[in-house]
């Protein structure tokens, strides 16, 4: 068995591995944080799957995970797909979005993508205080198109013919990794974030994929804690991140 903490395979090429200097946490400002990074050119779905199962996240060719000395609040969470049943409020969310169409395709880039991304982030800046800096075409490409290989996809959401949301996902051997989602601020009242996760769960169920990886759940941050509403789910034991068989368990 390949060592999951190293990059293997004929197409993988690790360009560098580093841990950033400790800084103020973006999610919990009273704490300090640091991320460990790996830049991997030509990562395969198998390599990406092994890393995601050990708590890594991917943007472009960059993989990262928390490397904080005094905090383990960023808990990797995955939904157990075949046992998931939507709650009453989640069923209402589905009903509110019956007229929203979804198309699964290779990740793309267009003026429409960039404008929608920037509109979403500007709205979040005003409503939740997120830092705001408009993204340029090249940066969008490097974050969401580059490194996708044959496993990275986007789910484009439409109302009639108007693009209202983009969900980036990695379809991997053992699970689907929900990478990022952004949407038209005018769609906000219909719960698009919840709706996109429900569509990703349905996609995994249709494909016979056992898990949907939602990234980090942080109890003290509303933008990250909502993930715990999708049940049943499992949490990665941070002590087993580098083990050949990482341990995922129901929350205590």
UniProtKB/TrEMBL annotation:
Span of domain N-end aminoacyl transferase N-terminal: 24-92
Presence of the UniProt keyword Secreted in the record: no
Signal peptide range in chain numbering: none
Native species: Desulfococcus multivorans DSM 2059
GO CC term, one of those recorded: cytoplasm
GO molecular function, one term: leucyl-tRNA--protein transferase activity
GO biological process: ubiquitin-dependent protein catabolic process via the N-end rule pathway
The reaction(s) this protein catalyses: N-terminal L-glutamyl-[protein] + L-leucyl-tRNA(Leu) = N-terminal L-leucyl-L-glutamyl-[protein] + tRNA(Leu) + H(+); N-terminal L-aspartyl-[protein] + L-leucyl-tRNA(Leu) = N-terminal L-leucyl-L-aspartyl-[protein] + tRNA(Leu) + H(+)
Gene designation per UniProt: bpt
SUPFAM superfamilies: Acyl-CoA N-acyltransferases (Nat) (SSF55729)
UniProt record similarity statement: Belongs to the R-transferase family. Bpt subfamily.
Function comment: Functions in the N-end rule pathway of protein degradation where it conjugates Leu from its aminoacyl-tRNA to the N-termini of proteins containing an N-terminal aspartate or glutamate.
Record keywords: Acyltransferase, Cytoplasm, Transferase
Residues annotated as domain N-end rule aminoacyl transferase C-terminal: 112-237
Name of the featured protein: Aspartate/glutamate leucyltransferase
InterPro entries: Acyl_CoA_acyltransferase, Asp_Glu_LeuTrfase, N-end_Aminoacyl_Trfase, N-end_Aminoacyl_Trfase_C, N-end_Aminoacyl_Trfase_N
EC number: 2.3.2.29
Record keyword Cytoplasm present: yes
Record-linked Pfam families: ATE_C (PF04377), ATE_N (PF04376)
Highest taxon of the lineage: Bacteria
Top-level enzyme category: transferase
Compartment annotation: Cytoplasm
